[in-house]
Amino acid sequence: MTNNKYVLSWIEEMAAMTQPDKIVWIDGTDAQAEALRAEACSTGEIIKLNEELLPNCYLHRTAVNDVARVEGRTYICTPTKEEAGNVNNWMDPNEMYAKLKKLYTGSMKGRTMYVIPYSMGVVGSDFAKYGIELTDSIYVVLNMLIMTRVGTNVLEALGDSPDYIKGLHARADIDEENRYIVHFPQDNTIMSVNSGYGGNVLLGKKCFALRIASYLGRKENWMAEHMLILGVEYPNGEIKYITAAFPSACGKTNLAMLIPPEIYRKKGFKVWCVGDDIAWLRVNKEDGKLYAVNPENGFFGVAPGTNEKSNPNALHTCLRDTIFTNVVHDTKNNTVWWEGLNDNPPAPEYAIDWKGNPWDYRKYDKKDKLGTSGAHPNSRFTALAKNCPCISSEFDSLTGVPVSAIVFGGRRAKTAPLVYQSFNWQHGAFVGSIMASETTAAAAGALGVVRRDPMAMRPFVGYNMGDYWKHWLDMGKIIPNAPLIFHVNWFRTDDEGNFIWPGFGDNMRVLEWILARCEGKVDAVETAIGYVPKPEDINIEGLDLSLDTLKDLLSVDTESWKADIANIKDFYNMVGDHVPAEMWEELAALEARLG
Ligand code: GTP
Ligand code: SPV
Ligand code: MN
Predict the structure, then answer these.
(1) Looking at the structure, do residues 81 and 21 belong to the same domain, yes or no?
(2) Domain that includes residue 332, residue range
(3) Residue 7: in which H helix or E strand, if any?
């Protein structure tokens, strides 16, 4: 399929180490994909679902010990520890290569090695970067065919160049103790072993499009961010674009596919989805604005909670050509189910849970989700972007879309108000750097613990966090018409722990204020943390929410902010001496303003 000597010699070397029985090149054709699906069905790796109800859809279950990203086993192996920084795990590259070599040696015996040439971004565009993933998993191949642009045209576009990202994935024994997700940014190399799950193994996604890409972006003056991209269309047809960075399982897919409330729809507002997880951002030379593309080709979305009311667009996207991972199998209809899909879980005699065991929905206990749910809380759908009813006409754009606003956000029960605007780019970068959120099931580990997650990139920065913040500050200086930077929190709770803000489609009401600020069309109140809306400027028409409650949602709780400052300082100290002086100055200024 290619004469590229760099590609061929690397594959030869990897094959000599892993010793597969055969090597199969993935060409991106339907015929080949169909044959692979049939093969995976015959071995039980995937289950074909009801063709009438869910055409071309499949179910897969991972090993019980392999259901989320494993941050503790994810490494950035730069030549020095300082380059990787204190937030990342690091090991000397030579030591790590040696360790991995042992794990990979002979790991593909009796198996097939698939060669997946793929592109992040539209093949041939200025934004595009190419990768080749070697894997012994058909499930990975089928997911990559959805999540990235795969095929021989990638090899043609690459030509004789050595400029591609090497990715080696072996399932090996799915052994937790020997699971490693490793990046060697200086070698454009990613190595993953002993996992078969999502972000650990679909190497184009978090490993390449965030960790390696963030490293490249710093060198090449662009940005790779954990951000959705959406367009808000006004009644006059004009479209303004927003990117938003929320930590894993904190609402990116939902916001990206938002359906505006009825009062907005009647006026003619629409929302278009460009991307739901990753944005690559570059300065446009002509108009000096920041432009965004979504380098992915599909969505790897959280299933639980997705329903006709919360996110109808996501639901409709995954009614065809979709792979479901770790959801409930309804064997009566040969369909799937998950918590929060509807109130009709399959009857116990027809329900198989994510572990592959019979499942009785009556035993479900909200307090022990992980132990009693039918679908794993981090169960996912892999679906094609082009099947999304609200996919933007700019999805395949070669240049991307101009960004008016960047929005940060997290899950905070108390501290952060519904929305606030930063004073300027530097302060906005600071707001990003102090982001915090309660942890979710998207990564292995304790749930619901507040941790600092700067720019929603804590697990995804491919170099020193302090240098990453410096890169944000530097980018601000080379974007003549920079977006404004905001922070939102959909997750404030009352004393009983219920969410106060209705969220989902109603988040449109906040987006409207954000864009009005970008256009200079609405006033705001200056507070210690930034500009907050005047309560009357957030449209609550048609909502069961009083103006007083809204005032509460917008209030800045000075005491809890003061309490947060100590935690931020500890975090900055942990990030270490690469934290830019500007960030410390912003922190001191915030502390002073809080009084
Ligand atoms: P990753 O794919 O892990 O990066 O996650 P994501 O950021 O795309 O999160 P997603 O949109 O899948 O949402 C995750 C969870 O947050 C789901 O359980 C949603 O129901 C919930 N959620 C999303 N938006 C809102 C909101 O506006 N309000 C509330 N209360 N919950 C929300
Ligand atoms: C995330 O955890 O942010 C995801 C899912 O988008 S994974 O691809 O597993 O990283
Ligand atoms: Mn994500």
Answers:
(1) yes
(2) 299-383
(3) helix 5-18
**What is the whole-number distance in angstroms between the Cα of residue 549 and the centre of ligand 2?**
33
CA-nearest residue for atom 28, ligand 1, is 503
Bridge-based pairing state of the strands 298-302 and 239-245: unpaired
Alpha-carbon gap, residue 509 to 489, rounded angstroms: 13
Q: Do 182 and 99 sit in the same domain of this protein?
A: yes
Are 426 and 476 in contact by the 8 Å Cβ rule? The answer is: yes
Cβ of residue 69 lying under 6 Å from some atom of ligand 2:
yes
Question: Residue 451: how many CB atoms within 10 A of its CB?
Answer: 16
Q: Which of 200, 225, 243, 250 to mutate to test ligand 1, by most ligand atoms within 8 A of the CB atom? A: 250
Q: Which residues are known catalytic residues?
A: 250
Same domain, residue pair 283 and 411: yes
Q: Are residues 124 and 209 in the same domain?
A: yes
Domain assignment present for residue 513? The answer is yes
pTM (predicted TM-score):
0.98
pLDDT in 10s for each residue of the chain, 595 residues: 899 999 999 999 999 999 999 999 999 999 999 999 999 999 999 999 999 999 999 999 999 999 999 999 999 999 999 999 999 999 999 999 999 999 999 999 999 999 999 999 999 999 999 999 999 999 999 999 999 999 999 999 999 999 999 999 999 999 999 999 999 999 999 999 999 999 999 999 999 999 999 999 999 999 999 999 999 999 999 999 999 999 999 999 999 999 999 999 999 999 999 999 999 999 999 999 999 999 999 999 999 999 999 999 999 999 999 999 999 999 999 999 999 999 999 999 999 999 999 999 999 888 888 889 999 999 999 999 999 999 999 999 999 999 999 999 999 888 899 999 999 999 999 999 999 998 888 888 888 888 999 999 999 999 999 999 999 999 999 999 999 999 999 999 998 889 999 999 999 999 999 999 999 999 999 999 999 999 999 999 999 999 999 999 999 999 999 999 999 999 999 999 999 999 999 999 999 999 9
- The residue whose CA is least distant from atom 10 of ligand 2 is 199
- Three-state DSSP at 516 gives helix
Same-domain status, 285 and 330: no
Instruction: Tell me, yes or no, whether 279 and 374 share the same domain.
Output: no
Give φ, ψ of 44 to 5 degrees: 85, 0
Atom of ligand 1 nearest to the CA of 442: 3
Q: Are residues 39 and 108 in the same domain?
A: yes
How many domains in the chain? 3
107 lies in the same domain as 188: yes
What's 125's domain CATH number?
A: 3.40.449.10
51 found inside a domain:
no
Q: Say which CATH number the domain at 259 has.
A: 3.90.228.20
With contact defined as beta carbons under 8 Å apart, do 143 and 323 qualify? yes
Give start and end residues of each alpha helix (H) in 74-162: 81-84, 93-104, 138-147, 152-158
Would you call 587 helix, strand, or coil by DSSP? helix
